[in-house]
Amino acid sequence: MRIERCFFCSSTIYPGHGIQFVRNDCKIFKFCRSKCHRAFKKKKNPRKTRWTKAFRKAAGKELTVDPAFEFEKRRNTPVKYSRELWEKTVDAIKRIDEIKQKREAQHILKRLQKGVEDRKQMDRKQIQKSMHMLKSPAAKLSRKGQQLMEIEEHSDYEEEPEAMMMEAEVGDEGEE
User: Where is the composition biased (Acidic residues) (predicted)?
Assistant: First the structure.
């Protein structure tokens, strides 16, 4: 079973599906759905249409250069059937698929890392702009120290009048 690729969006076309357009020079264009066929007839550029694979690759959203893609290339030379070759090929396909998924995940993480760095840089700029609104930790500590000193001084003032009152009372009792 041969699985074709859509000329416009690069999605898979299974046997019995899609539309074929044959140009006068015998060039065959295969489309997965009418949406792709209409866009082709309107002479839309797949690299500028945001939902296509071509756009995603051109914009750097998907992995484009990778040795694993060499294995997916279409080969027109027929190969004599061999059970050993078939088993090795199936094993190789599984291994290649694992490698490709890891590389795609790394590519996505690398793309997301740029956004994180940009956000950090924007945060730094915002902090530089509104530095006057921020209070430093040292200022908070010194304020707490000042408040503690004020509380201690205030408590000292309260203790002195009480002590004087007690002395006065003791003195009054002694006179009697």
Answer: 153-162
**Cβ distance 18 to 51 under 8 Å?**
no
**CA 66 – CA 171 distance, rounded (Å):** 100
Closest Cα to residue 33, out of 47, 59, 51? 51
Percent of the chain with pLDDT over 90: 45
- What DSSP string describes 106-175? HHHHHHHHHHHHHHHHHHHHHHHHTGGG---HHHHHHHHHHHHHHHHHHHHHHHHHHHHHHHHHHHHHHH
- Alpha helices of 11-136 — where are they, by DSSP H? 34-41, 53-58, 83-129
Rounded distance between C-alpha atoms, residue 170 and residue 154, angstroms = 25
Stretch among 40-44, 59-63, 161-165 having the lowest mean pLDDT: 161-165
Question: Which residues on adjacent β-strands are paired with residue 22?
Answer: 28
Tens of pLDDT, residues 127-165 = 888 887 777 777 777 777 777 777 777 665 555 555 555
Task: Report the distance separating Cα 144 and Cα 57, nearest Å.
Answer: 58
pTM for this structure? 0.49
For the chain, the domain total comes to: 2
Does residue 162 belong to any structural domain of this protein?
no
171 lies in some domain: no
